[in-house]
Design a protein that fits this description.
The complex is a heterodimer of chains A (about 260) and B (about 350). By secondary structure, chain A is mainly α. Chain A is built from twelve helices and no strands. The two termini of chain A are about 35 Å apart. In chain B, about 25% of the residues lie in helices and about 35% in strands. Chain B has nine helices and 20 strands. The chains are: A mainly alpha (about 260), B alpha+beta (about 350).
Chain lengths: ~260, ~350
């Protein structure tokens, strides 16, 4: 079959961008497994490494959960209602995607740090510095936009009259949301959650600035080992984190594809 | 049954002003009006999707103005069906019963009865997007009817369908109403639909209900330009049908015509003026109605001529200017009007 010229051009351009994205990933895997397999095996059995990677995954999951509980209702409001200050709220939600992570760290410190706006008064019973809540808060701050925006688009794609019909069939406002709007927007909420989780797990600067290096998350450990023990020590942990993130990513995308295909 | 008192509402580009309306128990009430007249808004107010700025809505002597939609017992069917795309046909129909936590046995019985009534049983496991428009609209009807609502609201239910499906479903709507006796409000911009289905018609124009009455009355003395445009465009008669050898003989008052239908008893009959042939001599052909009459009115409309012919009832006929001149017709001329039994639309 003859490929048309524009299609050929697009394929060529596509190959280039995929190469730029894939090369560093392929390279790090190649280097690790070809030249330092024993180092990788020792890292993957290292309790400290597993703990850090586990903590990263878990706190990213908590961050998504928090965003889900508070963000999905907000996304629904943004999709359905018009109110004063809506543009402002949408701007605030988008902002974390546009600011340097170090700046995010500074801002978080001034609010959740030990002498921060909120962190100070609640410090007797809830601490953010050097504790899990701090990791989660930092992750929520940088990752929430992905889930909220995706969920809002999901709700926008559901005809509001479907909910009206549900109401006329006896559904309360909550039932119409739960049985109609939510399931129909779910594929987009789900992919937003994946993106959000990925963004959370990848955060370094904001977490380190607010929490410090302990409890240690995977990016913190990579930096730490790279800085004190050298490139290859850092790379081992990086490869483990990459493997986990990649498999979760691909697995969830596949699951979402299956979910989507059913509708 | 349903009373609307001094209802006003402004919403987006639409508005309704001082609507007063009473719809009787078991009545099929059509609301006729052009696009943008506020027809959908009126239905959505009755359903409780909007709150009125002013006025009250009563159903069965209960003021429901402040009731949320789920407590109104009002069924709603939109023009574009709006089936739940993630649920199959049966789950769509079951939706309301599930919410009400109706016991399984009763649910199954009701589902079966309603799906049977609308001929949907064979589609029960299909997803909405795999259905034709007509099928989807019937599922939407079933979904509303299975709950035995006090009032059924139909928002342009036939407008999104192709013409043959439209005509078929129009008949089915009428049958359904006769069988279920459910009080129905049906809004449409299609005057034929309004006439054939409506026991009474309300004419809505610029958010005001300007005329309410039986179809004959509305079209004999129209108070709106929108309606006046259609006067004389259709031949509409009420009659009584008797079946004989597969054909129906319908008495439309002094005149007997034959039609292809299975309907008996009280019917409405509609014959398009362009489906009627005129000639000065009798036309010999089977399956045709032939009525003898006299021309009472001639109006020249350029390339076509519209005639009124007294055949015992007044018949409107449209012919080309050319054949009008060829036949040398004038007021008082005796003519034969012929039309096929299959051109007579019966409801």
């Amino acid at each position: 079959m003859k490929i048309e010229r524009i299609t050929a051009l697009f394929i060529a351009l596509g190959i280039l961008i995929v190469a730029v994205l894939a090369l560093p990933i392929a390279n790090i895997f190649f280097k690790q497994f070809a030249f330092d397999l024993t180092g990788f095996l020792s890292a993957i059995t290292d309790q400290a490494v597993l703990k850090a990677v586990g903590l990263s995954c878990f706190s990213a999951f908590l961050a998504v959960l928090v965003t889900f509980v508070f963000g999905v209702p907000l996304a629904y409001l943004l999709a359905r209602k018009n109110f004063r200050g809506k543009a402002l709220i949408e701007g605030i939600i988008d902002l974390p995607m546009a600011i340097p992570h170090v700046v995010a760290g500074v801002m978080l410190l001034t609010v959740f740090g030990l002498s921060g706006l909120i962190g100070g008064p609640v410090s007797p019973f809830l601490r953010f510095e050097g504790a899990l809540p701090g990791i989660v808060v930092a992750m929520v701050f940088v990752s929430a936009p992905f889930l909220i925006n995706s969920a809002r688009e999901g709700f926008q794609s559901v005809d509001p009259r479907l909910e009206k019909v549900a109401r006329s069939l006896g559904a309360t406002e909550w039932e119409a949301f739960r049985k109609v709007a939510f399931p129909l927007a779910f594929p987009q909420i789900f992919s937003g959650a994946i993106m959000s989780w990925a963004r959370a797990i990848s955060e370094f600067a904001a977490v380190i600035m607010l929490v410090g290096f302990f409890p240690m998350i995977a990016p913190g450990m990579i930096w730490n080992r790279f800085y004190s023990l050298g490139l290859y020590e850092g790379m081992r942990v990086a490869v483990i984190l990459l493997l986990i993130t990649l498999s979760v990513f691909i697995g969830l995308k596949y699951l979402r594809g299956r979910l989507y295909a059913e509708h | 049954m349903l009373s609307i008192r001094d209802l006003s509402k402004k919403w987006a580009d639409f508005s309704l002003t001082n609507i007063d309306l009473d719809v009787k128990e078991r009545e099929y009430f059509t609301v006729l009006g052009p696009t943008g007249a506020g027809k959908t808004l009126m239905l959505e107010l009755i359903a409780g999707f909007h709150r009125p700025d002013k006025g009250e809505i009563w159903i069965n002597d209960k003021n429901i103005t402040d009731f949320p939609p789920e407590q109104r017992k009002v069924g709603f069917v939109y023009q574009d069906y709006l089936l739940f795309p993630h649920l199959n046909v049966e789950e769509n129909v079951k939706f309301g019963l599930r919410l009400k936590k109706v016991p399984k046995l009763e649910t199954d019985k009701k589902i079966q009865r309603t799906m049977n009534l609308l001929g949907l049983t064979h589609l029960s496991k299909r997803l909405p997007r795999t259905l034709s428009g007509g099928e989807q609209q019937k599922v939407a009807l079933a979904r509303a009817l299975v709950l035995d609502p006090d009032v059924l609201l139909l928002d342009e239910p036939l407008s999104a369908l192709d013409v043959p499906t439209q005509e078929r479903l129009r008949g089915e709507l009428k049958d359904l109403h006769e069988k279920s006796g459910i009080t129905t409000i049906h809004v449409t911009h299609d005057h034929v639909e309004a006439i054939l289905l409506g026991d009474r018609i309300g004419v809505l124009s610029d958010g005001k209900l300007i005329q309410v009455g039986e179809p004959d009355e509305i079209f004999r003395k129209p108070k709106s330009e929108f309606i006046a445009k259609f006067v004389g465009v259709e031949n509409i008669f009420s009659g009584k049908s008797e079946l004989k050898k597969g054909l129906a003989r319908i008495d439309i008052g002094n005149v007997l015509i034959e039609a292809v239908t299975q309907k008996e008893g009280k019917v409405k009959v509609c014959i398009r003026p362009e489906d009627i042939l005129l000639s000065k001599r009798p036309i010999k052909s089977s399956g045709r109605n032939m009525l003898k009459g006299k021309i009472t009115e001639i109006s020249d409309r350029g390339t076509i001529v519209r005639l009124k012919i007294d055949v015992g009832r007044e018949l409107v006929v449209i012919i080309t200017k050319r054949s009008f001149l060829d036949m040398k017709l004038r007021i008082g001329s005796g003519v034969y009007a012929a039309f096929k039994a299959s051109s007579v639309h019966v409801i």
